[in-house]
Design brief:
61% helix; elongated; 2 domains; 4-stranded antiparallel sheet; alpha+beta; single chain
Length: 174
């Protein structure tokens, strides 16, 4: 059976807080490896601690099959994924690597497009808000209708500003 034909690699890449990521389960499935072998490969990588912390987030899920025992897995960034799978060899592995890279890039494009749509909406709402405010200040009879428009517009502007604000990660100095 052709493994690449049965996998949807785009479904294995998710948007986690505005960054495309995958996980160790997806890597195991895509490359036909046992999950425990992928976890071992991650543990045995010879990268710096800083790189590992930025690109491999240890997570746990509760196993219903093992009486609630927490199972380890990793959320993995594109850089972490590339570092991890560099050691996977063979024509089949190379084809899957290429498809994974395309899937990561596709998700990054989706995130960028979403940001652009939010930015365009923000510009439209703030322009409308300013124009209505200017109009109302010149025309006292419009003040009653402005009273009903003002709060929803300002609430939407605040929400859009929150979405457009870049998320910064703070790390402790070692």
């Amino acid at each position: 059976m052709n493994m690449m034909a049965t996998l949807n690699l785009r479904a294995m890449i998710t948007n986690e807080d505005g960054e495309p990521k995958t996980n160790s389960y997806a890597v195991a499935e895509a490359f036909g490896k046992r999950h425990s072998d992928v976890l071992k490969a991650i543990r045995n990588m010879k990268c710096s601690d800083g790189f590992a912390k930025r690109n491999f987030a240890l997570c746990f899920e509760i196993s219903k099959l093992q009486n609630g025992k927490p199972l380890k897995f990793y959320q993995i960034t594109k850089d972490g994924w590339m570092f991890l799978v560099m050691g996977f060899k063979g024509q089949k592995a190379d084809a899957i690597k290429e498809q994974f890279i395309e899937a990561f890039n596709w998700m990054a494009d989706q995130i960028t497009q979403s940001f652009q749509v939010t930015w365009a909406r923000y510009n439209a709402v703030t322009t409308h808000h300013k124009n209505r405010k200017d109009q109302v200040s010149k025309d006292a009879s419009s003040m009653a209708s402005w009273r009903w428009e003002k709060r929803p517009l300002e609430a939407e502007i605040a929400q859009l500003e929150k979405e457009l604000q870049p998320q910064l990660e703070f790390t402790e100095k070692l």
